[in-house]
Sequence to fold (475 residues):
Amino acid sequence: MANNSKKLSWVAGLSISLGVPMLILPSIVYFTDYMWAFSIVVWGISILQGFVQNLAYAEMAVDFPDASGLPGYSQKILGSGESKLARFIGGFSAWSYWFGWGPIPAIFILSIVEFLTGYFNQLNDIPQPVLFLLVGTIVLFGLFITDRKGLENSAMAGYVLNIISLLPLVVLAVIPFISGSADLSNITNNWIPPDFTLDFKHIILLFGIFGMAEWSACAWETAAVYGPEYRNPKKDVLKAICSCGIVCLVVYILVQMSCIAVLGVDGVMNATQPPMLLLAKYSFGRVGVILSIIAIIVAMVSVIQTAFLGASHAMHSMAIERNLPAILGHENKYGTPQNAMIVLIILDYGLLFLGKPSAIVAASAIGYSIANGLGMYSYVKYKKEKNKALNKTDGVNLPRIWCWIGLIFAIIDVPLYIIGLIYINSLDAGWSSTIVAVVILLLYIPLYIYSTYERKHSVVKSQVVSAVHVNDNHN
Fold:
């Protein structure tokens, strides 16, 4: 990783993560369909889960300055020692995290196309694969050109994009309450589906819903990824994480509340256009709708950038730890993981041809839950040793009880969320989403085997070179 330490302000780190609230867009209809107005509470609880997990990641971020975010922590802690299984698990945690973030560009490129075709009907005459490739090329290569020049340029671009995009998103959610078009009875009279009971089936379903929510509502851990690079890591990482969490809490609740209050539960579930687009039509005229579409698309580009940075840094971290082929750890002259970015572009180009973001989201959520679960298990292992040694570092020191809180959330993530996600995927799309997730996650095995061979070959080669030098010196 490039040495950009002490150059990043917490505001710049925050700006990269502020694209995260846009992750609610693919799930507004989905959550309303299953949970009605209770979906508002689901988002709130999930954001609180994010606070618990992300504060733990903040502690590890400052204590492990050489690790690259959540993937780096898991590899450093779970993969430490001589155990081959522990090393594999640490690497698999990072791979799962990469899969949690990696498909987001494809998901939101497809969403951009949905917004464009939903308003500009003429675009429906163009074959969808052509639109996917056209929009995908513009977005992916535009971000590649910007991000390849380093983190500070990416942070500045993200700062500008998010200031432009986040405010209109909030405005669209707030205006209906000011104008009086929001009817709170649509929430209070439709609190939860009448057939919902706390039997075994619905409890598993609820775990699946919260697993889907975690994929978007907890994703602001990216503010901790660059913890060691802040000017004052101990204070700045907490400022970035807490401020981003507060923003997410307000925006997620406001957006879901506004959609249901204006459109009603039935209106959201039966919407033929994205709910946020319908909100814009209720609140503004034709010109206002066009401006809203532009603002939302800019916001989507922002969250694509957040994912692009997070996923490429995850892959780079794995290569540096020798859990992926070394070529993926290559940095360009700006110190950015360019090869990892290229692989990510190839992945998302392939996913574009699936044409449906919902299946990609469902599969990606499995990877993200595994990553968070193993990430929390790694935190528990580290925190337990830290508590036992009565060791307070110069970084972030959460209360000792955070060890047990972390263990609870680790168990919730893995296995409970995984079971729930598999179940809810089976209800929506058969087994296709789960199969996609399993196949991509299992691809790690041959890559890990190759990287193991590469690592051993490198060790043998270095030993041969050392022996040659010894013989030359002797002669």
